[in-house]
């Protein structure tokens, strides 16, 4: 089989979905699931090795959201290494990451608005990281964390503004680096107990003077420019919700009524959305996932509340997607939709 989309559909329907209830109940993703995605070439998706990534994610999320969620965290590191402009990083990391021989997670909590949760301090040979990064997924299933931190403007640091050529205000810098996902004296974790996708092994990571060598830094960027870059990720996040909605709709069959058409329209809107329109489109996808899952629950009746039924799992996963990766504009749009 050479068609990536058909390959993703087959993996989702024949492997991931039949095991999804057990994964949900045990809180453990079989290593074979991630190995299968690596063997299919899907770990190289962010490097352009797989066509139609949004649909690939959608199909896999409709099979097992927990497995897809862990796998999806990997791609930020792949893209960062590929775009780093550093031959040393590309040579050492890109091939193994794309083949799934090295697997990555993300620790991006420091990029949230407000005071940074993780600070980067320049030291000889690299940076020292201090602080807490919440919501780090895939602990124990990843080799490295693509970690963000913010470097405070240095004393006396004034940057030249392009418009005037004069000295402007000091600029806070965001840095990204590949940090080994290994606990120790300067890196510790606290597991988080989630009501959905708990098998994702999501933890809170604490850095206490953790050293990162300069050769592990993938990028630096003025923090103020992070927002525009972050918005681009909303399209792919929407595929998680479309996957959950699609699975509920397929389980409903003829009882789905107008939901299949809504799913197609929601996907088309996400595909066509300009950056400013993505928050509303992403919110609509999450709202549809919840509505499709609750429709399945009502249609199936009392048995839906049994642990062995997919409806209760999909409702909890849809709830998770109402808040996962949310941004102020997404939250505002969702509040409008769910309060109608």
Account of the 3D structure:
By secondary structure, the chain is α+β, with helices and mostly antiparallel strands. It has 3 domains: 78 residues, Butyryl-Coa Dehydrogenase, subunit A, domain 1, CATH 1.10.540.10; 120 residues, Butyryl-CoA Dehydrogenase, subunit A, domain 2, CATH 2.40.110.10; 107 residues, Up-down Bundle (Butyryl-CoA Dehydrogenase, subunit A, domain 3). Helices cover 47% and strands 17% of the residues. The protein contains 12 helices and 8 strands. The strands form 2 sheets. The chain has a 4-stranded mixed beta sheet. Helix 8 runs parallel beside helix 10. It is globular. The termini are far apart.
Question: Could you write a compact summary of the structure shown?
Answer:
The protein is 47% helix and 17% strand. The chain is built from twelve helices and eight strands.
What is the fold-level CATH name, i.e. the topology of the largest domain? Answer: Butyryl-CoA Dehydrogenase, subunit A, domain 2
What profile does the largest beta sheet have?
4 strands, mixed
Structural category is alpha+beta
Distance between the first and last residues' Cα: 45 Å
Strand content range: 15-25%
Helix content: 40-55%
Q: What's the rounded overall pLDDT mean?
A: 93
List the helices and strands and how they pair.
Layout: H1 4-26, H2 31-39, H3 53-63, H4 65-73, H5 75-82, H6 87-99, E1 104-107, E2 118-123, E3 126-136, E4 144-151, E5 173-180, E6 187-191, E7 203-213, E8 217-222, H7 226-231, H8 234-252, H9 259-272, H10 278-300, H11 310-323, H12 328-338
Parallel strand pairs: 1-4
Antiparallel strand pairs: 2-3, 3-7, 4-5, 5-8, 6-7
């Amino acid at each position: 089989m050479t068609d990536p989309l058909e390959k993703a559909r087959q993996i989702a329907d024949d492997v991931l979905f039949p095991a999804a209830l057990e994964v949900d109940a045990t809180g453990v993703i079989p290593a074979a699931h991630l190995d299968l995605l690596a063997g299919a070439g899907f770990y190289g998706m962010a490097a352009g090795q797989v066509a139609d990534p949004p649909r690939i994610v959608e199909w896999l999320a409709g099979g097992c959201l927990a497995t897809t969620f862990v796998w999806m965290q990997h791609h930020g590191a792949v893209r960062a290494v590929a775009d780093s402009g550093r031959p040393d990083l590309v040579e050492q990391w890109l091939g193994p990451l794309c083949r799934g021989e090295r697997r990555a997670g993300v620790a991006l909590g420091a990029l949230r608005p407000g005071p940074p949760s993780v600070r980067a301090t320049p030291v000889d040979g690299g940076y020292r990281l201090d602080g807490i990064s919440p919501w780090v997924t895939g602990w124990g299933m990843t080799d490295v964390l693509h970690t963000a931190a913010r470097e405070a403007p240095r004393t006396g640091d004034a940057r030249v503004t392009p418009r005037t050529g004069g000295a402007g205000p000091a600029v806070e810098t965001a840095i990204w680096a590949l940090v080994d996902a290994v606990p120790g004296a300067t890196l510790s974790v606290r597991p988080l107990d989630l009501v959905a996708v708990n098998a994702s092994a999501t933890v809170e990571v604490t850095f206490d003077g953790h050293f990162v060598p300069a050769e592990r830094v993938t990028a630096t960027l003025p923090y103020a420019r992070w927002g525009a870059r972050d918005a681009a990720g909303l399209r792919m996040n929407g595929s998680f919700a479309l996957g959950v909605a699609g699975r509920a709709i397929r389980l409903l069959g003829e009882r789905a009524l107008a939901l299949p058409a809504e799913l197609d329209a929601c996907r088309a809107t996400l595909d066509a959305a300009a950056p400013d329109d993505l928050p509303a489109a992403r919110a609509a996808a999450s709202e549809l996932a919840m509505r499709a899952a609750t429709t399945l629950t009502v249609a199936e009746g009392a048995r839906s509340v049994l642990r062995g039924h997919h409806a209760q799992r999909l409702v909890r996963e849809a709830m998770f997607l109402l808040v996962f990766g949310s941004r102020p504009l997404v939250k505002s749009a969702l509040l409008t939709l769910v309060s109608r």
